[in-house]
Amino acid sequence: YPGLGALASLAGIYFGTAIDNVVLNNTAYTTIAHNASEFNQVTPSNAQKWMYTEPSRNVFTYTNASAIFNPARAAHQLRRCHTFVWHNQLPDWLTNGNWTAATLKPVLENHIKNVAREFREDCFAWDVVNEAFEDDGSLRKSIWLEVLGKEYIEWAFVWARKYTEGKAKLYYNDYGIERVNNKSLAVREMVKDFLARDIPIDGVGLQSHFTVGRAPTYDEVTAALNLYTPYHPTIETALTELDVRILLPSTPATRTLQANVYVNATRACVEMASCVGVTVWDFWDPVSWVPESFPGYGEACLFDEGLGRKEAYFEVKEYL
Ligand code: XIL
């Protein structure tokens, strides 16, 4: 009987999950994670980040990503790839290097070239650049901005198009752009500018890390997705890292609110022509990044500690 992925596909989108390498030895988990009826798309939570794929300069390792993609391929799950350019989870040799634009630019190209080629047959989409904007709409300070200047973003997209040989949808991905605000407006301006100048870009990923009580409504997510409607079908959208954290301890009331947030987000995607799918940033509470990153919050996923399906799961399923 159908899971979220199968139902989503009838509704015209995919429904996927992030998968982290730390739980691949848990077969109860992997049985669900690689069941294409439940999740017909997967994203590696960490495996394709720079610190894992190029731990030493020009030494590339793909073991973690393969451990997720091999079973995903066998299960006919779509693979979203994450991420080429980010300010976090960089290897020390990169962070601590004494770079100039002339020395760092070829490092970035070489990274995208190798990783894109390795996963050329896997990735239907790549998060080319992740989290490059601040909430006020300015560009985030990072090694990339500081050493290369703002052009690093468009260079990454140009190299990504070249080395994926046009086989992947190229996404800009960020959090906090699930409402119309200074940040999402800045992302929209970038998309518009790229299209006007023929810089390749195919999609915008709205991460969608939400908090019960502060989450955007259905109308707000719809308005945020709608920012890209003038550029659709050239530009598609997706909810790429959906989770809904609760201030602990949770109560029946906050768990019901959480279910509403999951449903509203999923519905906003289903009903928006440009939105191709929803990915939850893991489906299982014990591997969620939330408790570590947001102390006091948790229970953000669709499945509880005992791998039981939660109210949010059943409500999303009921909606789909
Ligand atoms: C998180 C992972 O889930 C954690 O395991 C890791 O320790 C830190 O990164 N936005 C992103 C993701 O784009 O890559 C992040 O993933 C969560 C926030």
Automatic annotation (TrEMBL):
It catalyses: Endohydrolysis of (1->4)-beta-D-xylosidic linkages in xylans. Its EC number is 3.2.1.8. It comes from the Eukaryota. GO terms for cellular component: extracellular region. GO terms for biological process: xylan catabolic process. Keywords: Carbohydrate metabolism, Glycosidase, Hydrolase, Polysaccharide degradation, Secreted, Signal, Xylan degradation. The keyword Lipid biosynthesis does not apply. Belongs to the glycosyl hydrolase 10 (cellulase F) family. This is Beta-xylanase. It comes from Periconia macrospinosa. The lineage of its organism: Eukaryota, Fungi, Dikarya, Ascomycota, Pezizomycotina. The chain holds residues 53 to 372 of 377 of the full protein.
